Amino acid sequence: MQHIVSLLERQAKQQPQQVALKIWRDQAWQCFSWKDFSQQWTQVAKGLINLGHQPQQGVAIMSPNMPEWTIADLGILAARGCVVPIYPTNTVEQSQYIAEDANCKILFVGQQEQLEIGVQLLESGSIETIVCFETCLRPANTNILSWNEFLALGQNSDNTDLATRRQQIKMDDLATLIYTSGTTGEPKGVMLDHANFASAFAMHDQRLSVDSSDVSLSFLPLSHVFERAWTYYVLYRGASNIYLEDPAKIQEALPRSQATLMCSVPRLYEKIHSAILQKVSKASTGKQALFNWAMEIAEQALTLKQTQQQPNLVHKLQYRLANKLVLSKLRAIFGPAKLLPCSGAKLADDINHFFQCLNVPITYGYGMTESTATVSCYTEQHKCLGSIGQPLDGLQVRISEQGEILVKGPTVMRGYYNKPEATAETMVDGWLHTGDAGNLDAEGNLQLTERIKELMKTSGGKYIAPQRVEGALIREPLIEQVAIIADARHFVSALIVPAFEVLEQHAKQLGIKWQHRDELLENTEIKNLIQSRLKQVQANLARFEQVKKFTLLPREFCMKQGELTPTLKLRRAVIESRFAEQISAMYADPTRA
């Protein structure tokens, strides 16, 4: 096993002029060769030492995705430091908790919003120095350095101290403290060491094919273990990494980047799936018939592939025609993608099936921060729909008597920083208790059922898995977000954020007049429309799981309001508190729909 910095130094020597990092800035590509990359991370390491950084001391990074994020990351590791990511959307209070708990004295920030929070941390004494990735941000403060000033600080330092630290590096050194955002309670710092990452690389090498010809598009937050571990892996394999600062621009970034790799969460595929079906619904009868025929042929092809049967000549010709007229055009949304890891939440089976029929290379999997991301995923040869793949070779996975997924192996964390009780509760006899319920089938495929801690119990004693219900509802194109309410209630209700663009189109077709969004949401015809659509998408749910009443909300749940985690999971306690009045009305008023 080798340290990540050593592995990337090897790539820099082998391909110094090849592009390592890339970003679209000011209507042009800004590229960093492997030589540039290694020189700058070395300057970062020396700059940190110059500022008084000590071995294994935490250094925080609070920024959207950009090449400087990864350069700083590698520089911290090269200085034998511990990287402490802070989500760029975190509040001052959240950021202060992390900086103080991890004893960070230096903070890297990306944009104005993060600088403003950093200045408050500086004034409170939580940190001592800020480094700004964007040079134009720097205010007049001797404790705030621009990126170029900081690199110059490292460039003008000698190599002696850095060389000494490099000789002292150990594989059990802490590489990072990743504070889990958590849907309840204060965040916990997951301790991952260099051996964890090296083991993850070796396990992924047995499962994936990534090389220096590949290009990966990084749009999930680097503050999260999924994108961060993936970026490490991509660079370790010698591929190029493209950064997208604004995840909302993913649709335009996909064709421009020509990426072959991209990790994502299921929500992206849910939205693309919904947009495709919405467009088809507005097409002519002939085009709808062509789409349906092409998808039938694609489904037949997928079935033959899964059962390892060869298609006959007629089917080959039909598939060739379906691919030319329909399938290839839909697949073109993803450019030349060859591998699309997907995790972070449950991907609905029908949506997964839809994209597998299109031959979109989604590699669905499952993992946690506590397991250095991946626990299981599809293999390139074996994609068992309905499962979350097979556990990586080198990991032990078993199901407890309570149905909980337990994991043991070299990628499992050392524990939670400064939280021995939480560590003892989660790590029992070396087994990581994931908090997720599931099972293993006869072929070794892992299946995920629900989050054990998120199960809701109605006042009638029925258990509701909210993600299952929400997953059914979110397939309706009129619904953008939904939060289920059921715990200790006598029926299931929902807070629904409509897909306003789609809703407004329906309103126009119905001849409804409105001036403000609130008027539209209170319209009886609109409520009846949503009610009828709910009835359709809930057909496969048990009666006790079905939403009986709902409230339409005029805005989306968001991270800045504390209603979503940075990985877009619902913070249910926050949502139920913030919308307590609307929830009470649903249970108090028997006529409310």
Automatic annotation (TrEMBL):
Residues covered by the AMP-dependent synthetase/ligase domain: 8-417
SUPFAM superfamilies, per database record: Acetyl-CoA synthetase-like
Keywords tagged on the record: Fatty acid metabolism, Ligase, Lipid metabolism
Protein name as it appears in the record: Long-chain-fatty-acid--CoA ligase
Keyword Flavoprotein belongs to the record: no
Molecular functions (GO terms): ligase activity
Superkingdom, natural source: Bacteria
InterPro entries noted in UniProt: AMP-binding (IPR020459), AMP-binding_CS (IPR020845), AMP-dep_synth/lig_dom (IPR000873), ANL_N_sf (IPR042099)
PROSITE patterns from the UniProt entry: AMP_BINDING
